[in-house]
# Entry
Amino acid sequence: MTNQPTYNKRLLGLLVLLAMLIVSCARMASPDGGLYDETPPVMVRSHPAIGALNSDEKRIVLEFDEYIKLQNASEKVVISPPQIDMPEIKTSGKRVIVELVDSLKPNTTYSIDFGDAITDNNEGNPMGQFAFTFSTGNAIDSMEVAGTILNAENLEPIKGMQVGLYADLSDTAFTTKPLERISRTDAGGRFSIKGIAPGEYRIYGLMDGDQNYHFSQKSEMIAFMDSLVIPYGEPAIRKDTFWIDSLTIDTIIDVPYTRYLPDDLLLRAFKEEVSSQYLLKNERLTPNKFSIYFASKADTLPTLKGLNFDEKDAFIIEKSLHNDTIHYWIKDSTIIKLDTLEMTLGYLYTDTLGQLAPRTDTLYMASKKTLAMIQKDKDREMEEFQKELKKRRRRLKEGEELTDTLPPIKFMKPKVKSIKDVHATLTLDFEEPLARIDTQAIHLRLKVDTLWKDIPYRFEFMDGYTRKYRIRAEWRPEQEYELVIDSAAFTGIYGLHTDKMKQTMKMRSLDDYGTVAFDVRGSNLSSNAYVELLSGDDKPVRKQKLEKGHAQFFFLNPGKYYARIIDDTNGNGKWDTGLYADHLQPEHVYYYPQMLEVRALWDMRQDWDIHATPVTKQKPLDITKQKPEEKKEKRSKNAEREERKRKNK
# Structure
């Protein structure tokens, strides 16, 4: 009979030996022993043949030397001339099959630009910028043009935007006909339009919302050039490198080729301002206020006539800068009590011909928050007040000395934006329009030693706001200030007033700030151009007009900044978009190409030639949201392996 413990030991030993053998075999089979496949697919045949003439084939079959994949075909594959009915593009083993649905045009070069969409199945090696061409006529058009599209306002590269050409040079082609030859921008905003015949063209960019290949909706982003595009080619030389292995260069040779130009076109894309005027909506969220919203800006306010109330002197009107949002604060309590306000509203709207025409609508506005609901809230407040009052009486009866005061039911509570920077503005923002302001009850004081001294100030209404005010004073570094507002200094139109308020502010030391100055060169800048300092998220922080090519920013907090110039040609203090019908380009924008590191007690002076760096490379990558796609490095895996082997020797 077999001894059981001895048997178990032998079995355990065999299992350990087997495990060691499996691990050893696994190591021997490591892929470190062979090279990775880094060769992209190669097309071996096609039907029709590449560059075929007089072809009427609508089914194109491309066959490769290995199994392939098609990545992001809807984004990367572009067929020109553009296809109104989308073709079917699919893979089958080693083949790519394209089924065209549209009828083929006579005497036309067709190009199917795959970009880098075709990769091998295993390693994902991209084929590179591959395009298949054939012609329905007896010649292949081989010209190309290339360039970049950027967002005109912030120089962001625009991905996936159509770019196309017209041989028809009329202004109406872009708004009535499909683009004749097209491409699509990559992540860096780059495009290349292939298969172009010699001649003169107009070029356009289009973010095509309705897929009709022309500018048909005001909401579509567009771009256009004022000058004509004339494609041509010239002889050029490029360097080709041959490798012995993944680390060692064998030979570098000069290869002649034809360079197609222009290849540096720049288009600045924009959306036109929505000019169609119509009533978006109206609402009455509370009984004492209703609001009217329009689709675009207007030069005048609408006319309003009450049907069940007298509108004369009944409101305080709060409007936006462009009259597209209007709030009506009701002053008359009898109107506030009406469950539904009935009125007519007269305004200008855009008719079917695109012209402004008078229109009158009848509006019925019921309050979403009724007076009963408001009264319920007031009753609850009163109930809580009475409970607190009873508690205080009980505490007094028990002989407790009360040091706290009983708060009133409700005060107006303005939002006070405190400041600590000498360039900042002290603001007060109220929740309702004011009926009365007692400036004698507003005190601004400077701390001198241990005493507070009243100092002069200006209390101003802020333009464009109905309920916002500012206090201006000569703020001094390292000084402490106190804003004191007496009770009832401000009274709202509904009778509420402010309680006594006190706020202390201490200004920062000059030693805490830095300064940046720009000396700008650029002969084409207008006299209204200004510089904006930007934060790390590309948002404006400060603005300064260019005066004789100079702009200086004082009292900057330490940190990282960026800068851009807005060429404000119309002098309205903001960037303006373009208008295709008037051949109006958007206002130009230029970025300072480097980050600015502002330090305390440092004065920086920067020379800025707006033409020294190409516009396509001006915006720093740190604040560019649309990052360029990382290109796959050839021989990277094998190079890493070779380097690893050398280190292990």
Remarks:
- The two ends are 55 Å apart (CA to CA).
- The longest helix spans residues 371-397.
